[in-house]
Amino acid sequence: MNKNYLDELNPVQRKAVECIEGPEMIIAGAGAGKTRVLTYRIAHLMKSGVDPFNILALTFTNKAAREMKERIARIVGEGEAKNLWMGTFHSVFARILRSEAEKLGYPANFTIYDTDDSKNLIKAILKEQGLDDKIYKPGSVLARISAAKNNLIAASAYANNAQIQEEDRMAAKPKMGIIYQAYANRCFKAGAMDFDDLLFNTNILLRDHPKALLKYQHKFKYILVDEYQDTNFSQYVIVKQLAAAYRNICVVGDDAQSIYSFRGATIQNILNFEKDYPELNVFKLEQNYRSTKNIVGAANTVIANNKDQLQKNVFTDNTSGELIKVVKTESDNSEGNFVANSIFEIKMNEQAANKEFAILYRTNAQSRAMEEALRRQNIPYRIYGGLSFYQRKEIKDLLSYYRMAINNHDEISLKRIINYPARGIGDTTIDKIVVAANDHNISLWTVIENIKDFEIGLNSGTLTKVDDFATMIKSFSAMLTTHNAYDLGQYIAVHSGILRDLYADKTPEGVSRHENIQELLNGLKEFTENEITVEEEVKNEEEAENKEPESTSSQLLFTDTDEEQTSAENLKPAVTLNAFMQDIALLTDADKKNETEEDKNKVSLMTIHASKGLEFGYVYIVGLEENLFPSQMSLTDRVDLEEERRLFYVAITRAEKRVTLSYSTTRYKWGNLVYCEPSRFIEEINAQYLDLSAVGNNAMFEEEDYPSKSKTTSKKPEFVQRPIMGKKLVKVNAAAKGTSDFDTESLRNLQVGMQVNHERFGFGKVISMDGVFPNNKATVFFEGAGQKQLLIKFAKLTIVTN
DNA sequence: GTGTAATGCTATTGG
DNA sequence: AGCATTACAC
């Protein structure tokens, strides 16, 4: 493999790898070997003499970065690969910001707030300002602030922008600007950055500190960005700035797989790329090596329904494989049972391993039915996403102590732990402290630390309690430099009282919480014992940078980096808790490492979003129902619907051998039974790729065997649980008289030339018919919507005239 | 201030 | 259905 890596590439891939200098854009269809090209390109850069310290590779997940690093290591050797700058935007720039934080007025040990932390801070601000959190919902306030930051609009600019003010007034949220300013101010005072700040502040750094800009421009002579279609404006500007000196920028993406616009990602970045770098080389990877012909064909027919897309012809030389099976079940639980049974069967018949299976869904809430069914079948599984380990209450509690020891001013952590375990400092006391802090525009910690100087009407007992708390935190802080991560972590767990509190709780939940704390402490121990590796890494970095003669100009620019290393050296010999906490907020479950083969050999459950970039032999896409997938939030806007369709495209193209689609006619939502109709996406797949035997007459007979059931159906308007939201009510009701009530039989005699009506496409004329009723399809030309292929079973056509 | 019972809200998607 | 916040009794 070592020398022949170029031979493993097809001609286009090879060109993309060998073209090293200048801007490059790789448009890669699903399964076209994008990761391989990226990996080999980096390896090739290094083989060509580029120093790994000068290569920056930005990936979508930390896991992707780690895997890519491992693959590169196999080509160029581990020692070299280790020195690559590789990770997510957030983790790479968090690392850079730590060494540059003072330039921005932040402490180097700033805290990273996750979404929960951010929402809590917003809630606090709303309460202090007497604003109604029903109008200013913390989640949507945060989303609005997030969108502003991702478009590089600072709080002050936001508050002073007439157009934005008008927008917020129209949305009945005139105070948004004030909230944003308060939020930014509080984060700053707490020495905290939220996820968006990591990118926003990197932009500030590069904009306002020319020396820093120059330094990183010369440090990152070669930049690669994976999943470029899912980058936002803030990320775009960072990359543009960093690449401005050398213009060695390579981006890889697929517009058809752009699924993160809700997070500010914009396809505009791909379009801008051609404008910014007119001299660029473009490579299109169109041959799919992952999936069967049926899967590729089906995916292509789905995405063809989108108007907005770059022209691409994804094809494969793989075998046809099996048809995509569509399965109808009558409840979410039976959908789970079907999937679990099917996995069990395939495992037996085809000797497949658990890890070859994935169950993909639109929303996390759908995992439960799947989990229960898999557990009944004794099939080991693993859920990705959802509540991560680090977001569990007990873990966040303990981490809050760690965070506060490292950064005393972190107010979210402070509020979390000041009275947990209970130590008699209640809400009224905290409120008084908050008022004092706001009055003096200082952090809560500064008030607490000097609580006896603030006359805010606390009685002497409370005063002592607050003072004791401050003393405790200070004692933890003092140990940061004298104790290693594990010793201090353990010490805090004991002396904070958390361990005792959880140990006292003998309920199963309490026991489980205690176990989770133990697991965290074990992780800490492992981290601490690896200190040699960390030290070596530091040493490696020193040696490598010293031995490699830099050009004189860039050597001058590297003075700051030297400082970094001296400070790292001071931390020896112990691995500090500070080091452990560096980017823990950025870790997700998908980033777990050190797993045994047994850990890995499990069926994967995840949202389709989380499945991006992954591949599996057998893929189940469940919950293919209107209002769920596509999500009801996407139905009013073509742009949103097209993103849902791309999501479906991503889901299908995860599979190598087999795709199974399922939908259920009923489903529990918020504890209420809701009736569902099959997703429009099913009928968007050309029928030649589908196996509809499991949705056929059998299912219809079932309906007819139990006419009482459908009667109850129509008589139950109260299954809509929130009539306040009129929009939803109408839609759910509409869903109730779905396929089950539709008389497919009336279309038995549908023929070419007939006029038909379709609920979405309107009037049309049948051009051709294919297949045997009821598993047949009709090609219809609609006056308004053009030519469509429709599955008779799903399309709900009505015959207008012969 | 603390602990438990009742209430009410939630479920797109995520670093 | 499950979780978080709130209300209320101690």
Protein described:
It contains 36 helices and 24 strands. The protein is of the alpha/beta class and 802 residues long. The strands form 6 sheets. Strands 13-14-12-15-16-11-19 form a 7-stranded parallel beta sheet. The protein has a 6-stranded parallel beta sheet with strand order 3-2-6-7-1-8, sandwiched between helices. It binds a DNA duplex (15 and 10 nucleotides) through helix 5, helix 11, helix 20 and helix 31.
Summarize the structure.
The protein is α/β, with parallel strands linked by helices and 802 residues long.
Q: Biggest β-sheet, characterized?
A: 7 strands, parallel
> Termini, distance in Å?
66 Å
Number of strands: 24
* Lateral strand order in the biggest sheet: 13-14-12-15-16-11-19
Beta-strand proportion: 5-15%
Class by alpha and beta content: alpha/beta
Which residues form runs of ≥5 with pLDDT under 50?
Answer: 541-573, 697-741
Cα-atom Rg, whole angstroms?
29 Å
Mean pLDDT: 86
Helical amount among residues, as a percent range?
40-55%
General shape: globular
Number of helices: 36
